[in-house]
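Researcher: Quick test of sequence recovery. C-alpha cells follow.
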C-alpha cells in the first residue's frame, strides 16, 4: 500500500503555502496542476486563466505518457529517464511534498500521483476536492504561467504494482479486476474512442466517479470499503484496475488504497486490450 498520506485538504494546503511565503515552512510544498480530459486534453488555457498560486502546469499527454511506445494503449507509461526530466522541470527535489490537482475530482491528476509514487517519490498527495474545493473554500487563484527553478529529483520505478494485458487476462483466482470506466462503456452500449466496445471478461464495473461525493471529495474510507465490498473486494483481496487508457484507473487504485486495499494498475487498459484482435470481449452488465 502507498506509504504516507494520500490526500491533503484544501485548508491544510493553504496553511502550508502561507507558511512558505512567511518563511515558516519546514519542507517545500509543490503544487502540480494536471488539467486534462478527453474532450479538452490541453489544460494550459484553463491553467493560465486561474490556478492555485505557485502551481506548475503538467502536460499529461507529453509528461505523464510516452506516445513513442506502440502497442501499449493510448497513454503508455513514460520511461524513468523521461519522467525524471519532467520531475526536474516541475522543480521537484527529494524531501518536497507534492500536491496534485485538476478540475475533475482528481480523476486526471491521479495519474501524476500514481507515477510519483511509482517513481519512489516519498510524499505525493492529491488535493481532496481538487480545484473546485480550493475555490469553494475561498482560497485565491493566480493567472498566467509559472516557471519553476530546475529540480534534481530522480525517478526509480517499481514502487507500485503493475500488470500487463496477459496479467489482466489471467488475474489471480480469488482476485478482482475492476473496470473504472463509465458503466455504459463497460456494458458495451457506447464506445467513443476505442475500436471495440465492452469489457475484459471477468472484470467488474466500478466507475471511478463513484469514488467521490457530490463535492468531488473522496468518500470516507469506510464508505469506500463498502463500495468495493459490493464488487467482491475486501482488505487482502488481490485487486487490479483498468480504464480507457490508464488515467482514471489510477484514481481507482488511490480509492482502493484509502479503503485499505493494495491494487495493481493495468496501464494499457481498454485502449490496448481492444486493439489486440486475439483478446476476447464481454458485453452486458455481468463480468
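Model:
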Amino acid at each position: 500500500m502507498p506509504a504516507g498520506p494520500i490526500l491533503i485538504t484544501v485548508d491544510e494546503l493553504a496553511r502550508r503555502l502561507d507558511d512558505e511565503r512567511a518563511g515558516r515552512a519546514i519542507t517545500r510544498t509543490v503544487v502540480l496542476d494536471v488539467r486534462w480530459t478527453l474532450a479538452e486534453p490541453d489544460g494550459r488555457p484553463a491553467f493560465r486563466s486561474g490556478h492555485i498560486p505557485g502551481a506548475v502546469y503538467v502536460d499529461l499527454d507529453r509528461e505523464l505518457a510516452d506516445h513513442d511506445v506502440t502497442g501499449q494503449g493510448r497513454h503508455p507509461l513514460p520511461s524513468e529517464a523521461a519522467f525524471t526530466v519532467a520531475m526536474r522541470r516541475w522543480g521537484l527535489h527529494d524531501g518536497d511534498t507534492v500536491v496534485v490537482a485538476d478540475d475533475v475530482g482528481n480523476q486526471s491528476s491521479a495519474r501524476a500521483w500514481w507515477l510519483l509514487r511509482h517513481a519512489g517519490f516519498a510524499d505525493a498527495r492529491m488535493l481532496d476536492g481538487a480545484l473546485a474545493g480550493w475555490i469553494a473554500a475561498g482560497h485565491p487563484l493566480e493567472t498566467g504561467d509559472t516557471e519553476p527553478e530546475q529540480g534534481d529529483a530522480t525517478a526509480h520505478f517499481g514502487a507500485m504494482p503493475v500488470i500487463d494485458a496477459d496479467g489482466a487476462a489471467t488475474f489471480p483466482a480469488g482476485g478482482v479486476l475492476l473496470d473504472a470506466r463509465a458503466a455504459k462503456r463497460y456494458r458495451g452500449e457506447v464506445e467513443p474512442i476505442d475500436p471495440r466496445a465492452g469489457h475484459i471478461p471477468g472484470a467488474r464495473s466500478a466507475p471511478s466517479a463513484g469514488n467521490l461525493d457530490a463535492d468531488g471529495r473522496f468518500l470516507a474510507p469506510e464508505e469506500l470499503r463498502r463500495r468495493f465490498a459490493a464488487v467482491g473486494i475486501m482488505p487482502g483481496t488481490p485487486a487490479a484496475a483498468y480504464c480507457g487508457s490508464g488515467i482514471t484507473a489510477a484514481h481507482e487504485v488511490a480509492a482502493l488504497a484509502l479503503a485499505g486495499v493494495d491494487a495493481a494498475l493495468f496501464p494499457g487498459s481498454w485502449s490496448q486490450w481492444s486493439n489486440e484482435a486475439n483478446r476476447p470481449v464481454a458485453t452486458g452488465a455481468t463480468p
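The CA atoms of residues 210 and 227 lie 8 Å apart.
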